[in-house]
Design goal:
Length: 255
């Protein structure tokens, strides 16, 4: 069977699950949100990472039902965390949107409907979109971002610095967060990467955004980023992506 057929069956059989990676405050080390990351759990127990199926899901259009499932499940998990008294206030759930999901005409309506169905506070949700997706059709992207923002949903730009952004648009888009791509963070001992990270932090703050550094693997990267004024971070140093049970226990210990 080809991958597309396999993915279709996997969706019917509910083989897609979410892991969550905590995002923390670089100054206090307190958790302040999580990023939902989808995995394909094969009946054998094997966990297939998203890089191996998101492109095919995107190509085939299956990303639409898969993305809808991811969003609804992330909202439900957030509800369970809140009811369990976990996740301080403010605490957000970050969900990745692919190009095809974001360009869907019904995107804003669908997000609004899901939040209502799942009774999730819009301010608890952050959507991550890459800069290339936003810049491809910036005017229609603007309308969607405004629709989401008016409803109270947060917007983060994922992998920032790896694509091309028009500064004029960045300034006009209602964005809350820039996420520094982990490539820059892992290379921060090189002067060039360090300059880029410092510039992204400065740019984000000038735009009124906060900054999340991705892929923090060492304490020295953490200190370095904190020293540069970076607000938030995620990475193996603090916590790996984990299933909901592990997340519940992780957040319980951090309270
Ligand atoms: O989970 P992992 O840490 O391997 O993530 C690899 C990539 O897959 C990341 O770039 C992330 O943006 C993407 N990804 C993870 N989960 C989702 C998802 O639910 N939807 C989309 N569109 N991309 C995702
Ligand atoms: O959406 P995005 O592509 O940024 O998704 C984050 C990806 O980065 C996921 O695949 C996640 O598993 C991975 N990741 C998270 N923390 C680290 C880290 O500290 N180091 C590395 N190499 N990868 C990480
Ligand atoms: Mn992301
Ligand atoms: Na990223």
């Amino acid at each position: 069977m080809d991958l597309e057929t396999n993915l279709r069956l996997a969706l019917d059989h509910r083989e897609f699950i979410l892991h969550y990676q905590p995002i923390f405050d670089l100054k206090t080390l307190a958790p302040c949100g999580v990023e939902a990351l989808v995995r394909w759990r094969r009946p054998t127990g094997e966990l297939v990472p998203p890089d191996e199926f998101i492109p095919a899901a995107e190509q085939s259009g299956l990303i639409i039902p898969l993305g809808a499932m991811v969003l609804a499940e992330a909202c439900r998990a957030m509800g369970r965390l809140r009811r369990g008294g976990l996740g301080g206030n403010p605490f957000f759930m970050s969900v990745n949107l692919s190009a095809r999901q974001f360009t869907q005409p019904e995107l804003v309506k669908q997000v609004v409907r899901t939040l209502r169905d799942e009774r999730m506070a819009p301010g608890d949700l952050k959507l991550e979109i890459t800069e290339s997706v936003l810049m491809e059709h910036p005017e229609s992207a603007m309308l969607k971002l405004r629709g989401l923002r008016e409803f109270g949903v947060g917007i983060g730009i994922d992998d920032f610095g790896t694509g091309y952004s028009s500064l004029a648009y960045l300034q006009r888009f209602p964005i809350d967060t820039l996420k520094v791509d982990r490539g820059f963070v892992s290379g921060m001992d090189e002067y060039g990467n360090r300059v880029i990270v410092r510039s992204i932090i400065g740019l984000a703050h000038s735009l009124g955004c906060d900054v999340v550094a991705e892929g923090i693997e060492t304490e020295s990267q953490l200190r370095d980023l904190a020293g540069l004024g970076c607000d938030l971070g995620q990475g193996f140093f603090y916590a790996r992506p984990m299933d909901e049970a592990a997340l519940t226990s992780f957040l319980g210990k951090e309270e």
